[in-house]
Write a structure and sequence with these properties.
alpha/beta, Rossmann fold, eight-stranded mixed β-sheet, 8 helices, globular
Length: 242
């Protein structure tokens, strides 16, 4: 069991380069589990879990109504359901899930709602249930492109603080913290704009100068296989106590 005092924003020593799936499958007991993903986005993580672990029951919750509608219109799986809702007001009963996970989404929770979200996550977990948070670390070449129009340094720091606060206040304990690098390939600049600028969950309005600056930074990483990055990530695993 790790102590909250030992938690770090980032430690590159021994951090593997791997798909995120390798990390959560190593850290989480997904077989036969009742799982809630908060801020599921397009549902990729929930779909991967539901497909690989047919015995699991997965609820994928998204606060953005446009993305949620798209998720409902996409091909469905028998053990996966999509729900509209927010992390700070989860529309489910107490002690409903074995696992709650948030993948690159905790820092999107409004800052004034972060502590409330952590309390609600604890509420919906069964006794001994696990909360898994995978958050991007503020650093790396890809981040230097994003920060031209979307600087998330403070948001990510607040999310990390909320995790530590939930442990310090009691009711949640830190099980493990893991650092890793995830490979990211973006085909071209048009794909970058589509995936990271023209998104429905956050409104981005770039000036012509900003767009050109972003393009210039992006194009420096282009190869015949597209632009390739290694993005630093941190995974924190908490357990409900009491």
């Amino acid at each position: 069991m790790a102590a909250v005092e030992s938690m770090q924003t980032w430690d590159p020593r021994g951090a593997p380069t791997c798909a995120h799936r390798e990390i959560y499958e190593e850290m989480l007991p997904l077989e036969d589990a009742g799982i809630l993903e908060l801020g599921c986005g397009n549902g990729d993580t929930s779909r991967a879990i539901a497909t690989a672990f047919a015995s699991a029951t997965v609820t994928a919750m998204e606060v953005d109504a446009i993305q949620h509608a798209a998720n409902l219109d996409s091909p469905q799986l028998p053990n996966l359901s999509f729900v509209l809702g927010a992390a700070e007001k989860i529309p489910t009963a107490d002690e409903s899930f074995d696992i709650v996970l948030m993948v690159k989404s905790l820092h999107h929770v409004p800052p004034e709602m972060l502590d409330r979200a952590m309390r609600d996550i604890r509420r919906v977990l069964k006794p001994g249930g696990l909360a898994y948070f995978a958050e991007p670390v503020f650093g790396g070449a890809f981040n230097e492109i994003l920060r031209v129009f979307h600087d998330e340094e403070e948001a990510r720091a607040r999310a990390f603080a909320a995790i530590k606060n939930a442990i310090a206040k009691g009711g949640m304990e830190l099980v493990a913290e893991k650092f890793f690098l995830t490979p990211l390939r973006v085909e071209n600049f048009e794909a970058f704009v589509r995936k990271f600028i023209d998104v429905t969950h956050t409104r981005h309005s770039l000036s012509k100068a900003q767009m050109e600056q972003v393009r210039g930074k992006f194009e420096k990483h282009m190869t015949p296989q597209g632009a390739v990055f290694k993005t630093p990530m941190r995974a924190d695993l908490l357990r409900k106590t009491g």
